[in-house]
Amino acid sequence: MSNQSIDKPWGGRFNEPTDAFVEAFTASIGFDKRLYKHDIAGSVAHAQMLGKVGVLSADEVAQILNGLEQVLGEIERGEFEWSVALEDVHMNIEARLTALIGDVGKKLHTGRSRNDQVATDIRLYLRDEIDAISAELKRLQGALLNLAEAEADTIMPGFTHLQTAQPITFGHHMLAWFEMLKRDAGRLVDCRKRVNSLPLGSAALAGTTYPIDREFTAKALGFEAICENSLDAVSDRDFAIEFVAAASLIMTHLSRASEELILWCSAQFNFIELGDSFCTGSSIMPQKKNPDVPELIRGKTGRINGHLVCLLTLMKGQPLAYNKDNQEDKEPLFDTIDNLRGSLKVFADMIPAIKVNREPMREAAIRGFSTATDLADYLVRKGVPFRDAHEIVGKSVNYGIEQGKDLGEMTVEELSQFSDTIQQDVFDVLTLEGSVSARNHLGGTAPQQVRKAVLRGRTWLAG
Ligand code: ARG
Asked: Which of 118, 236, 323 to mutate to test the pocket of ligand 1 (most atoms within 8 A of CB)?
């Protein structure tokens, strides 16, 4: 005689109840309940499909859809009681459905498994999040274009090795950030295509014996493709890994930009001021205004890189097909989404509130011999070989350091002691404006190019 089965949706073959700690340890309801909307959407499409192929009667489908709508309402009104004993979002919703509509609720799971169900839920959820993140990314890009346009003529020192290199325009610098984010946006578009594929129909691992119509389900859920191997469909989370990799790159770009903002708003640089509402003070040093927002974004990049390594490691040893390991995909994915969305939002809000200190930027560009390359190019245009020109300019700079003068502050007599090729017209190139305007080609720093790039950027954003 068999013992009584335990009170779980899968309790039939069990005689002893789950250990209380194991129940809590294996449950995912604490975090996967955020998938409820997508779980219900997946169930609606699945039930409709079962109706279409005749596995469920029209009346059964109607009852199930009605019940699912009630469950959705209860969740959204905060009335739903989530149960750890019911393990996850899927079984919580199914149990409540059955409580509401009776035995017909138990038919919903026909031809389906939680394995293809959860894979479907994550894909639907991630698809929505990618759309929201892409929109936020574009809002930030729009803010960068506005700032680039407003500061197209603003001159700052450009750096290599964080040493003053050549004058650039601040607008050009903002457009560098814009370009990084443009590639990031492209990565999200690309990743979305592979996310947007239907696992349902794969059931536990091998497919199902019912005459299912996967095209119908795919269409109902807006999937542009169908996962073509059931083992792969329930098992792989590469689409989530790919998303987190794209997220890591976005965060890396935001982190680099943050680092520059932090430097620029220090007293030593004084290139910009961040809006008060994006900074905090010190409890002990009254003079302080700390760039907390960019610092925090720089810091959060670490945890998102960590999530990428976490998911890659989660996947690497798994044999086909589904393993419970995959339940661990959710928290890193969710945390990535939350922090990425938050970082993009605050960055997009912060950019328009930046005050650009044009004078200190200009002075810094003057101080750093940033037109030295222009002087060398001037000599080359007059027939001096580049290596000789390099040497002449090096000597001029050395003299400038001794005399405390920038190249543009020297007289033509002072400059011509290093080469008699140098004449009065040298001052056309030694000015900061002359230097940036001369780099007037696609991708160059000239104000004219910045304005053109802003227009191209706006067209891209609208497209
Ligand atoms: N909570 C599970 C997860 O997130 C759902 C799938 C469970 N499937 C199973 N065969 N135990 O992966």
From this structure: 118
